[in-house]
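Handout, section B. The chain below has 286 residues.
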Amino acid sequence: MTADDILSHPALESCVRGKAQAMLAIHDASPRTTSPFATQQRWLMTQAMLAAYFRNQAQQIDSGILPARLVDSIVAHALASRNTATALINEMLKYGTVRHVAGSEGRRYRPIEPSPIALAALSHWLAAHLTSLDGLDGGNRSVELRERPALLGAILPLIADGLLASRAVREPNGTFSLFAWIDDGGVVMDRLIVGCQQDSIALSRIPTDVTSVSWLARGLNLSRSQLARKIAAAETMSSLGWSGVRGKSALWVSAEFWREYHAAQAVKLAIIEQAFEACRPCCAGD
């Protein structure tokens, strides 16, 4: 399925809603584990890191990867400076998203690897997206992921390659871009989409169950005032608005913003679909 096929599929709304609910559950279960994905830049940096790590792992299992190589990968993809990349890795070490490989004590340069909780979150992330694809064509990708553990390490580098090569992913437009580049902006958009009134996509203004900025910012690495400013900016773009008195009524989402969000998901799902199909032969015996 291409991104256009997915975007025009009649089941996309329900599949994306389920995926967004799964993403919110992953975030709520461990906000610190998901912090490397908090902004578009950090998410792309982490994709580059995952690709480098799993490719190194395929060559020498349980060897981990040196932080310097991860930094090189981020810089090579023109995602951030060396200082910014190094700071992200140090933060991931601090919060246990990655850890030093056991037995590497005393080395001058210690390799690192994703922690078990991070690998579990990655598996849930991939499963949620494969479930969305299954909902579109009746496939059994999510079952295959459960039955073939090696699929995770094989498919993630290919997904990262596709995401990093996609201009639509790297340079989102419109209101989606407005939220994507702020801390936990993806979570904000997921909450808005999950809160949209179902079967209302024909409306120019789709009602949500969100009635306060404070609730929308709850549990995020984002203050109420920061989020309020972004919502105000979205209002000037006619992408969001209050159905009544500001802050005392429900927010609505414009049909254009709704489509932007679903178009971004369609691009991502198409990339994941292509990576999954490429990995099926190599993991068939696992």
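Note. The first helix runs from residue 3 to 7. Compare this with the example in section A.
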